[in-house]
Amino acid sequence: MSRITVKDILNRKLKEKRKITALTAYDFPFAKLVDEADIDIVLVGDSVGMVCLGYESTLPVSMREMIHHAKAVSRAAKHALIVADMPFGSYQGVESALRNARRFLKEANAHAVKLEGGKPILAQVKALVRSGIPVMGHLGMTPQTAGQLGGYRVQGKTQVDAGRILEDARSLEEAGVFAMVLECVPKVLGKRITRSVRVPTIGIGAGPDTDGQILVLHDLLGFDSAIQPRFVRRYAQISRVVRRALARYRRDVVGKKFPSAKESF
Ligand code: KIV
After folding, report:
1. Domain boundaries of the chain, sorted by first residue
2. Residue 249 CB contacts under 8 Å (≥ 6 apart), including other chains
3. Whose CB has fewer CB within 10 Å in the chain, the N or C terminal residue?
4. Looking at residue 48, what is its pLDDT?
5. Is the pTM of this model over 0.85?
6. Tens digit of pLDDT for each residue in 14-42?
């Protein structure tokens, strides 16, 4: 299978009218499974901080950590478009945005980067696009600025807020993003933005009318998590499976049932 490109993602909306599938992944084995499942985009999200590293938010995630995880993902994913999240503090100025985004492409073999925000980061988005780095936007509930937004809550509920997010979406499109994530916005706003921009929208808690959907892989698989957002559909109960396996292993070792003669040399 050939590599999915930014152009393919655009064509899903403009030509094929086919929904885009996207998931996060942070390591080799899961990225391989996501890739083999024929998912279009694998996002090395800064959610790695909460999902894999035990941080309470995405804010402490560093470039070093992101590069480390993005490298593992890109070794595994041979088909999906690999998008790397720019962590908090890595794109506050144009220079740092360029320097850090280049690292994702050169060192970690990512194909694109994702940045959170609208108008305040347009200069960075434009500079990245000008220098040949594909950029995915991220609007609505932007976890890196959740503090300013009043926590992890639905955004764009008032007319003023919805209008601002719509404006941001138009500005991001003009700045050259190839797609944008819409997180936690009312479904009517998800639909409105999707109809207002030519580039694909990829929703997470943005209703059924966006051009694609993304979820955090570990949420979909049913790993334990402190937060259980309403927009997550759990397709498995992995924590339960793992717990059962570990209990059986412990029981077998303590009960001298493992290893058996067949499992020994
Ligand atoms: O970091 C992340 O996982 C994300 C998705 C929620 C879109 O940004």
Report:
1. 6-236
2. 258
3. C
4. 98
5. yes
6. 999 999 999 999 999 999 999 999 999 99
| CA quadruple 204, 209, 212, 213: dihedral sign | positive
**Residues of the chain under the 50 pLDDT cut:** none
How many Å lie between the centroid of ligand 1 and the Cα of residue 129? Answer: 21
Contact 139, 109 (CB under 8 A): no
- Give the domain 6-236 fold: TIM Barrel (3.20.20)
Report how far Cα 60 is from the mean position of its chain's Cα atoms: 17
Computed over its alpha carbons, how large is the radius of gyration of the chain?
A: 20
Cβ atoms within 10 A of the Cβ of 230, count? 8
Which DSSP category does 46 fall into?
T
Residue 141's pLDDT is what? 96
**CA-to-CA dists, residue 260 to 230, 245, 252, 265, angstroms:** 46, 17, 10, 10
